Amino acid sequence: QVQLVESGGGLVQPGGSLRLSCAASGSIRSIAAMGWYRQAPGKQRELVATITSGGKTNYADSVKGRVTISRDNAKNTVYLQMNSLKPEDTAVYYCNADIRTNAFITPYWGQGTQVTVSS
Fold first, then answer.
1. β-pair type (10-12, 113-117)
2. What is the pLDDT of residue 75?
């Protein structure tokens, strides 16, 4: 079937940077939108950024100017470059992709990767 595997999370000091990656694999015919979401303890999952297959991007107000989403369609991979990280960016980050495997497009989620911003 289809798998999304994230990598790149970890512990970083305030003001630091991290780059998250998410690779999709399996019986993929095409991928429409891809994105990153996050969930902090005690809070609901929220959108961080999305990118269409054509490269159009959308960002949450809380990360605009500090985060860049990009994708490599040949590798079925989406990236999230995060700069000037703040303690409030601490969360589990989840990759999402709308993937066509047959006649239908289905949303898939990765397992999540922890990002902790702390001194």
1. parallel
2. 97
